[in-house]
Description:
Elements: E1 3-5, E2 8-13, H1 15-21, E3 30-32, H2 40-47, H3 51-62, H4 68-79, E4 92-96, E5 99-103, H5 114-117, H6 120-130, E6 136-142, H7 146-155, E7 161-168, H8 174-181, E8 188-193, H9 197-209, H10 211-219, E9 222-225, H11 232-251, E10 261-266, H12 271-282, E11 286-293, H13 298-305, E12 307-309, H14 330-337, H15 342-355, E13 357-359, H16 362-371, E14 372-376, H17 379-393, H18 399-415, E15 421-425, H19 433-440, H20 450-461, H21 467-470, E16 482-483, H22 488-495
Parallel strand pairs: 5-15, 6-7, 6-9, 7-8, 8-16, 10-11, 10-15, 11-14
Antiparallel strand pairs: 1-2, 1-3, 4-5, 12-13
Helix pairs in contact: 1-6, 2-11, 3-4, 3-11, 11-12, 17-18, 17-19, 19-20
Pyridoxal-5'-phosphate (PLP) binds at residues 111-113, 146, 229, 266-272, 321-322, 400, 426-427.
Amino acid sequence: MKYTSTRNNRLHISSAEAITKGISEDGGLFVPETLPKINLEFIDKLCALDYQARAVEILSLFLTDFSREELVEYTKGAYGSGKFSSEKTCPVVSVGDGLNILELWKGPTCAFKDMALQILPYLLTASAKKIDNDKQIVILVATSGDTGKAALEGFKDVEGTNILVFFPSDGVSPMQKLQMTTQEGENVGVCAIKGNFDDAQNGVKAIFTDTEIKKTLDENGYAFSSANSINWGRLVPQIVYYFSAYCDSVNAGEIKMGDKMNFVVPTGNFGNILAAYFAYRCGLPVNKLICASNANNVLTDFIETGVYDRNRSFFTTCSPSMDILISSNLERLLFMLCDYDDAPIKDWFTKLKDSGKYEITGDVLAKMQTVFASGCCDDEETKATIKKYFENKNYLADTHTAVALKVYDDYREKTGDNTPTVIASTASPFKFCKAVLEAVKNGNIEADNEFDMLKELERVTGNVAPKQLSELKGKTPRFTDVVEKNEMTDMVFGQLNIK
Ligand SMILES: *Cc1c(COP(=O)(O)O)cnc(C)c1O
């Protein structure tokens, strides 16, 4: 299987090259040229397998320049040997009434990004070798929280790699900050910068594209690579769990083989829900993919009207991983909806860059709406939903998952669609103790620091916090640097011992 670019459909490259490069030189994203056909017989076979084996089957359809042995090794390294606290890796929990919750946060950092970032280092280092790139890989990450920690855990002590994470000093939760600054591993670095997430992101982009820095790295045997969600190596592992959730629903008797399901995905950069779309296009029986947003509802409007307009206020919400106004992976969806025509994509994304706004054509909008639905909710509704599901269903959801639950409840009421449904649950509720506690206790929190809140949430709900989070208490941070934006390059050189 070859890959092409959303902004140059004459390009044909291997998956190894797509994964090593991350983004195409023309500014586009890599997309497989053809999609594997997955029929019910194939899905039926998956039902009998465990998660690792399901992953090997699905990944081998997309990563045809990797051997089966390689994929067996990588999936074992990523999902085997106790890395995930659930034997099923990502279990499906039924809360009744056709509603099933796919818990994607049983990994080392308690957020769904582990599903991809645990396997990405294997794919990335192997890809670089396949295309004869013998340089040490340097991963730079700007993070608003979850990605940084998940990338650090994925790349720690992976031979041939170095990782440096920048986070805004006041822009992450205390728990997220402690998760990162206590990170172990010989090849890792973590650094706070004075500024907000955009400053961190712009700083990293500037370093990535600086030809002088690139040359210096090259001379010292290093090359930059990226672990962000536009890398195909992060997207492809996510396709697996939609098939897996479907199989688990069949096995649990929630549906019969061949029945359609809805999938509701709390969305930020559009990576997770795009993986669901790939699963659908390959043959997973899907009725609707429901895109759930918080108060930053660019995507809700876009899916309803076909107008993408980022010129609007930015809200900081209690579901911070979805606080985003430009959802990069949408470009891949539109390219596929345009039957791989790169001309409209170039047009729309130039408009987005220049004016922050574009409008897709009516036929593309109609195509999108045959499978996508959308909805949004604000923080108050998010918290009310956490309380409702906890009290009525004894299910404790985090803030991101609660956005999806609320959007689903609204959708079901509006449409009367009773198709069995899977909600993608993207984080442990204990990662967002304060908001979750506020929700279940109507704002009357006793504790005044993160760890007392964690204890209080355990007490009030009877749930046990993941030990990766409770054990952070009392750990001493290894990384305490706080630097100015213009000192970021020095940090990179410092970590790599380049004078
Ligand atoms: C990253 C993240 C999301 C958004 O996922 P996208 O793939 O960017 O749409 C949702 N919830 C949580 C908890 C996340 O960390």
